[in-house]
Specification:
By secondary structure, the chain is mainly β. The protein has helices at about 10-20, 70-75; strands at about 5, 20-25, 30-35, 40-50, 50-55, 80, 95-100, 105, 110, 115-125, 130-135, 140-150, 160. The protein contains 2 helices and 13 strands, in the order E-H-E-E-E-E-H-E-E-E-E-E-E-E-E.
Length: about 160
Amino acid sequence: IGNGKRMPTAAEFLRLKDNTYWQWINAGTDVVVKVVNNDGTVTSETIKYPAGYFVFRTTNDSHRGKMNVSSISSQYDYNYHPAVGSSPEKEADVHIFFPAIGMAKGSEVNNEHSYGYYLSNSLNTSHPTGCHALVFNSDGVNAQFTANRCFGYCIRAVSEN
């Protein structure tokens, strides 16, 4: 991938699953995206997100590895996006989004809006054409899925910085 970017390892996907809070949203969900600019001004825009998971950094150890838990979801705000170089108002607002965009199989896209498939750089030594992947749907997340490398799975680069 280059420029300080690389594919995540299977161990990194497992840590992400186990140490964060995952909140599923359905396709077409209106999300008001607020951005705090470097000068302190706030702008907002309504975006219709595809299906997928918002993955939040947790501030409480008891929230780690939780998915779709309504009792704590009010503590997390996917409407807050701190600007690059600014300080987040609260640590729980640090998040990423994994869209459920399916996978390519031949010339078709399968499971769009219902599953997300993300490759790691870790080969599965017990499966000659396989590698480890992060796979999810609205029911949960599997961070150690064995993926067949001939299918078109997504790649979500991570930064070395």
